[in-house]
Structures are given as C-alpha cells and as structure tokens.
Design a protein that fits this description.
The protein is of the alpha/beta class. The protein has an 8-stranded mixed sheet with strand order 2-1-10-9-11-12-13-14, with helices on both faces. The chain starts with 5 loop residues before the first helix and ends with a strand.
Length: 574
C-alpha cells in the first residue's frame, strides 16, 4: 500500500496545518477573493467523495469539466480518493465540443463531473454521457480537528492510474497520457528539488488546471507540500495581463513566489502593461519565473527583464525548462541560481542539422537559443537521429528521448502507438525503454536546447528551417501584426516544398496600413535572414487563428485550413 499519495498529503496538511490557507481564488482576477484552508478543503473532499459513492467502480473514468475554481480541485481530489481515474478537460462549448467527443470515445468515461450551471446547459444526448452537477454545502460546520477521523478511503498502489492527461492536440488528435501515482509523485519530487519549493513557497497560477503545467503547479504541488496557491482563471489573465503580475505583487508578504507560463505570457505582459500600472507593482519576491511549454525566445526574456526590472524583477530569476505531458510535466531544468543560458548558433549549421556556436558578429548569421537545463535525478535524456535511431553526437540536432520514473506507460488504449513511442530503443547502443518526444534539440556541454517539433520542421532545398525562427523574423519586421498569432509552414507544389506564412493583423490597424507594403517587407526580411523565398503570405481576421486551450499555436491545423480554403482571409499575396 502506498502511504505517500496526494490524499495522504491532504490529510497530513488538514491535521498539521488546518488553518493555513490552501487556495486563494481571485474570482475577478484581482479584487474578489475566495479562500479555503487545508482543513476546509479536506472536509469538502470528504463531502464530495460521499456524493460519488455508489455511482462507479474503481478505475472508472470521470471527466472533470468545470469552468474554473474550487469545485474543480475538490472533484479532482475526490476522484483520486475514491479510486476513480480523473480526466481533466475544458467544459463544453461550441469551440471544443468536437474535442470532448473524441476524448469520450477514447476513454469511455462513466460520467462527467461539472458545475450545476454547466450541467443544466449541456445537452447530454449530444455527448452520450451523464453530466453530474453535484451540490456541495455552501456553509459547513467546521468542527474541531480532533472530532474528524482522518483516514484514507482506498488502498493505493504506486501503479494505480491517478489521471489521464489529454494532450493539447497541437499536432494531432488528443491522446490520453496515463499518469500513475508513481509518475505524479516522482515528477513532483523533481519539481520540489529543482525549484527548491517547501511549505513556505507561494504559487501564483493562471494556467489552465486541466493541463499538465497548471495541474502540477496549481493543484498537486500545493497539496503535496502544504503550500498556499493563489489562482486566477486563464481568461482573467488573457483579458488583462496586469492581473497576473499584480497577484505576484500582492501576495509577496506570504513568502517567495513561484509563477510562470509559456513564452507568450511574458510577451503579452511586455505588450499590454503600461507604465501607470507598473508603478504599483513590486516583483522583488518573484523568486522563480519559469518558462516552458513552447520555444523560449531570448528576446522575450530580455524585453520582460528590461521592462520590469524597475518593478523589482530580477532577470536571474528566469527559469527556462522543458517538459511535456508524456513525462508528467518537467523533463529537464537547470540550476535556479544561474542566469538563463543563451547560445548563438550559426544559422547555416542549423539548416544542416548541427549546432555550431558563433560570436554573432553578423546579425544575419546566427540564431539564439535558450538552454532548458540538464538531466534530472533518476532520468536519462538522449538526442537521437529520428531516421536512423542512432545516438547523435554533441551539437548534432536530433529527436529528444527520455527515460525515467516520470515517463508515462503510454497513451490510454493505444498499444500499437505505445510500443513505438514509449518503448523506443537506439539501434547503435541498444538502449531501450525511451519515450520519443517528437521534439528536436541538441546538447552543448550537457545543456539541452530545444529547437522545435519534428512534425512542424520545414525542409526546403534539403535544409532544415524551424517555424518559430521564421515567425520571429516576421514579428520583428512588422509590429502591427499580432505577435503569437501566426504560423509558418510548407506545402507541396509540384513535388517542391514552398513556404507559406499566415498571420493575424490587429483590427485597429487594418484601415491604416498598406498590406502590399507589409507583404513586400516580410518577403525581404525572410530572404535576407534565411535566404528563403515566400510562396504565399496570408493575413486573416483578428482572433481567428486556431490555438489549443493552453494557448499553443496549431500550425498543422492552420496548414489544413489553408489547403482547404477555411481561413478567414483578409488578404493573400497570391
């Protein structure tokens, strides 16, 4: 029997630190707050566990599709307490209903747990699934802790499945990553060690709780360590990025802050927070500003630090890392006491599949990359040629492979794919049981540098190009297009790969720009920097670029839309 599950940790916190605030919910992203102590949280989980009794068998799947908030956390912990397999997803809406149906077909859940409001508005027949909006008491009689019997409802085994973490679907249909209690605890241990978290750390989280980064840092780490976590909804952050930094500033008195997100979250803070709001920020206790989930741009790190250093932010506190759902979350990380490691790599060498450092005297001759750390305890990283399956030498770009206790056993009900993806073996050294991540990267002195997705790699004239490098050139060339709302990809024209660029333009600039001039300047910039000719440049309507629910660009979907004439086109260069 496993005595160290997240439920054991919840019980320990409820008995040892019952009055400590576990979660602070920023209901409007800033002013209105809802707080719950660890003891209150435990009582709510017990109540929800009883409401679930008699409705399931152990290891039944339960969709968790709450819009946001305390009910989500309570239902997640209650599912684990009762031996259910939690399947966190975003609640039904017109945009993601198709995705939810694919998940339901894939994991055949027993029912869906959601808020009463969502349950009332959901057409259950459309999904073929019962949506349970179970009511919790608004007020509870909080008895003395000695009057409550602290006990674990189920016997747990390390091999038991805690949840299915469905992939974002940024490059394919979503697949359910099997996360066991062992995976979850092992990854949390690595995060604790490398972030130097303890019960005095304060987490500030805006990330979706149904994705790996938000789930681990917004729910699992706080419960396992007894940390306080302040949470706002992703919508609150995206509508007003200032709210995220204001929360970090507001909760500085509680302890050192750990908070972060993908590269785009720092980028939009640079773009949309004005000097008036900056004057009231104090970011001096923001100890760890982690960044991951998508390629990290050195220019973004510098811009953010330059802008917010007057507010007390320290560039040294940036913490780049690499992770993915298939490895539970974190797969590599560096030393939190070091500044980010940034290398200048010859652009021509990248095209040839190598990473040769340069002094960068010629601005058109290098690409900057950010180090994402090294091997973590008990884990092994390899760079492998995805075609030959042989290990790559240092500085050689290949696919990132991972082995270790955080790596999932596979995708739910995908035995054929699992053999290929989760049980890979090198041809030359016969090292086995590796996860093929589908990400490309290289090592320099044991530091991992991630260059992009294998499926998104653009190969033109036998040379390799990464979409994010092209997109950065485009965004630097013309500021009136929407940064982070565009994609570069290649299409086949008469057996020859051609480059296509698709971008949104800010709505407020549409009446004032000469699109033909913008197209010409983008063509010139891409040609000067990379020596590439652009086949087509397409501008689309504001807010029409497809992204996953966690904000990742869906480049392959944009490519499909382009080929099938489904883009909301304003202007095309063809």
């Amino acid at each position: 029997m496993n005595q160290n599950t997240i439920i054991h940790a919840l019980i320990n916190n409820a008995s040892v630190r019952p009055d400590k605030i576990a979660y602070i919910f920023l209901l409007d992203g800033q002013h209105k707050k809802q707080e719950i102590t660890f003891y209150e949280l435990y009582l709510k989980v017990l109540e929800y566990s009883k409401l679930l009794e008699g409705r399931f068998n152990k290891n039944d799947r339960a969709l968790l599709c709450y819009p946001w908030g305390l009910e989500y956390i309570i239902s997640f912990l209650a599912c684990i307490n009762n031996g259910l397999i939690a399947v966190p997803i975003f609640p039904p809406n017109t945009i993601n209903n198709s995705r939810i149906k694919k998940i339901i077909a894939d994991c055949t859940p027993k029912f869906a747990l959601t808020s009463s409001e969502v349950a009332e508005k959901t057409d259950e027949a459309d999904f073929g699934l019962k949506f349970l909006g179970l009511h919790l008491n608004e007020q509870q009689n909080l008895n003395e802790t000695t009057k409550i019997k602290f006990e674990v409802k189920n016997d747990f085994d390390f091999k038991d499945i805690a949840l299915l973490q469905y992939t974002s679907g940024s490059t394919s249909n979503p697949k359910g990553v099997i996360v066991t209690h062992s995976n979850m605890l092992a990854n949390s241990k690595l995060i604790t060690q490398n972030f130097q978290h303890d019960e005095n750390t304060v987490s500030v989280n805006w990330l979706p709780l149904y994705h790996d980064m938000g789930l681990m840092n917004g729910i699992i780490q706080p419960v396992l360590l007894g940390m306080t976590c302040a949470i706002m909804s992703p919508t609150s952050f995206l509508k007003r990025p200032f709210r995220w930094l204001k929360a970090i500033s507001d909760f500085k008195e509680l302890g050192l802050i750990t908070s972060g997100g993908p590269n785009f979250s720092y980028e939009i803070c640079c773009n949309y927070i004005d000097e008036e709001h900056m004057r009231i920020l104090d970011l001096s206790k923001w100890h760890i500003a982690y960044s991951g989930a998508e390629p990290i741009r050195p220019s973004t790190l510098r811009r953010f630090a330059d802008k917010f250093t007057p507010c007390g932010f320290n560039y040294k506190n940036f913490y780049p890392l690499y992770g993915l759902a298939e490895a539970t979350l974190m797969a590599s990380a560096g030393n939190i006491n070091d500044e980010p490691i940034i290398k200048k790599i010859e652009t021509e060498s990248i095209k040839a599949g190598r990473a040769i450092e340069t002094d960068g005297n010629d601005n058109y001759n290098y690409t900057e990359v950010v180090g994402c750390g090294t091997n973590l305890d008990g884990q092994k990283l390899l760079i492998v040629n995805p075609s030959t399956l042989c290990k790559c030498a240092e500085n050689e770009i290949g696919e990132i492979w991972i082995a270790g206790p955080c790596v999932s056993n596979g995708y739910w009900d995908k035995p054929d794919i699992n053999k290929e993806i989760f049980d890979a073996e090198t041809k030359d050294t016969n090292e086995g049981h590796f996860l093929r991540t589908g990400d490309l990267g290289f090592f320099i002195k044991n530091e991992l540098f991630v260059t992009g997705r294998l499926k998104e790699l653009i190969i033109i004239g036998g040379k390799n190009y990464y979409p994010q490098d092209i997109e950065l050139i485009v965004e630097n060339e013309y500021k009136d297009i929407r940064a982070g709302c565009g994609a570069a990809f290649s299409i086949d024209i008469n057996d020859e790969e051609k480059l296509v660029i698709v971008y949104e333009i800010h709505r407020k600039y549409l009446k004032h720009i000469n699109i033909e001039d913008v197209i010409s300047s983008i063509r010139r910039a891409v040609s000067q920097n990379l020596g590439l000719n652009v086949y087509d440049i397409v501008f689309i309507e504001t807010s029409s670029f497809p992204k996953t629910s966690s904000g990742k660009l869906q480049r392959l979907l944009v490519k499909q839309y382009y080929l099938n004439n489904k883009l909301k086109v304003i202007k095309s260069s063809l």
